[in-house]
């Protein structure tokens, strides 16, 4: 199990990987990409993705920064709440990044 310090570093790396427009928030499109990457064995429908995002944005509304979306603190809070496994998700993100580098 990761310590809080190493967890926050992993969450920061995950956040930075998906905040593609670098505005400091994960909008619905960026969050959808995150959900897909950290669940590589699941084939979500658009409706399922939208339901997941609706729940995240409702549950963590205090961490939504307008159009920017979910802040870094909000993403960290989702992991603190147990909504995801930061170690597993970090590994999935790093694996995806490695695969993309190998294919270029």
Automatic annotation (TrEMBL):
Signal peptide: none annotated. Residues 6-41 form the EF-hand domain. Transmembrane segments: none annotated. GO terms for molecular function: calcium ion binding. GO terms for cellular component: plasma membrane. InterPro entries: EF-hand-dom_pair (IPR011992), EF_hand_dom (IPR002048). This is EF-hand domain-containing protein. The lineage of its organism: Eukaryota, Viridiplantae, Streptophyta, Embryophyta, Tracheophyta.
């Amino acid at each position: 199990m990761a310590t809080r310090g190493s967890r926050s570093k992993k969450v920061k790396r995950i956040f930075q990987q998906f905040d593609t427009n670098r505005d400091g928030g994960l909008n619905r499109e960026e969050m959808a990409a995150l959900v897909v990457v950290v669940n590589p064995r699941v084939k979500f429908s658009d409706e399922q993705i939208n339901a997941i995002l609706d729940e995240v944005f409702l549950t963590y509304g205090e961490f939504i920064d307008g159009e920017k979306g979910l802040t870094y603190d909000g993403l960290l809070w989702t992991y603190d709440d147990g909504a995801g496994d930061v170690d597993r998700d970090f590994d999935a993100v790093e694996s995806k990044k490695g695969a993309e580098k190998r294919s270029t």
